[in-house]
Amino acid sequence: MDLSDMGPVEYAVIAFPGNRFRGEIAAELARLTSQGIVHVIDLTFIKRDAAGTLEILELDALDTQEAQQFAEIDGEVSGLLSQEDLELVAEEIPPNSSAAIVVWEDRWAASLARAVRRADGILIAHERIPANILELGAADIAA
After folding, report:
1. How is 39-78 classified by DSSP, letter by letter?
2. Which of 4, 53, 95, 122 is the most buried (most CB within 10 A)?
3. What would the pLDDT profile of 3-46 be if each residue is shown by its tens digit?
4. Average pLDDT estimate for 119-135
5. Contacts with 93 (C-beta within 8 Å, 6 or more apart), sequence order
6. Cβ-based neighbour number of residue 132 at 10 Å
7. Count of CB atoms situated within 10 Å of the CB of 80
8. CA distance 43 to 41
9. What's residue 139's pLDDT?
């Protein structure tokens, strides 16, 4: 993959207390990848049982039923994250919980990223504004 042609790359760690993963996220990732909005680069799962025993699983190590939920996702799912990265995330997962770690390219922004690079632009900051902060701001505006 030509890195100079890529859009911004992001990641998210999504926790599921009580190990209650239902699959809605897989369906949405499949929709986003099929529409070319994002490209999944890595997808890894961390499971911690009630006793605290940890298991880190790449997509291809999931059991058939779990893996089937992700079958429609178009991506490389290449194991980009190192063992050290995964162990750092795993420290934050409490007993009887699991997490999905997804790394994706924002394909919708690739042309903008290329334009910035051609213009010798330098990205100084890029942050996500959490939904709860937006909700507070919207409440202030409505008041």
Report:
1. EEEEEEEEEE-TT--EEEEEGGGS-HHHHHTTTT--B---
2. 95
3. 677 889 999 999 988 877 777 888 899 899 999 999 998 888 89
4. 86
5. 15, 46, 48, 54, 99
6. 8
7. 15
8. 7
9. 66
